[in-house]
Amino acid sequence: MSVQTLYNAATGMQSMETKLDVIANNLANVATVGFKKDRANFEDNFYRNEMLPGSVDSGGGMTAIGIHIGMGSRVSGVQSNFVQGAFEQTDDPYDVAIEGNGFFQVQDPGSGQTLYTRAGNFSINAEGRLVAGSASTGRPLEPPIDIPPDAMDVTIAPSGEVMVRQPGQTSFQQVGQIELARFINPEGLLKMGENLYAPTDASGQALNGPPQLDGRGQLRQGNLEASNVEPVRELIDLITTQRSFEMNSQAIKAGDQMLELVSNLRRF
Known about the structure:
It is built from two helices and 20 strands. It starts with a helix and ends with a helix. Strands 8-7-15-18 form a four-stranded antiparallel beta sheet, with no helix packed on it. Strands 9-10-11 form a three-stranded antiparallel beta sheet, with no helix packed on it. A three-stranded antiparallel beta sheet has the order 12-13-14, with no helix packed on it. By secondary structure, it is an alpha+beta fold.
């Protein structure tokens, strides 16, 4: 075994270590509302070409194959899976799940930037404004929706209309319209933490509008979208990844022992 063998196995260990980190994060967020699981993708490194396909052999003919020595592997990307998560019925009027494509829009009070989320666990702040559920930062829904302080019943239609019934009234009145944002490439969104995404050049610009139109999903009041992490599949992936890591580790140990043996033989 050569030093190159040690390097190849080391790149394999680094790749598997990244995959283990991704799997661990998926499992850590199995109960996170609206969380979308990630997958580590890999590619082989460049090759040392000792003989190219189609080389002329000793008989004057062309060879059918060549000799390519690989240089290990590397992470090509970590890809988010936006498959729909299961619905959890809560019966809370301010819990809203998206059935289909789309993201809620919230405004970050610090930067003023519009961010996006699949987590619909909303609440009402001291001003009566609908905000994303967070113990650290109040991020109001965009466009803003204010709930009257004397509202007795709140209804959110699948198409996003927010209706309230006040004392002395028998009918509901509309106080706002929830809009969703859709992206051509949601996998290009930047994960910010706290269930939030930011647009990038890869995701494209947000396509805003009411639910149920132009490919945007519909809303389900009194429900939350659960994480789409499948614990059993992640655990199986964890076991196979750990074994791959251990095999690369064994290759490094074997290579180190072989190099030591060759070094000792050269002394004689």
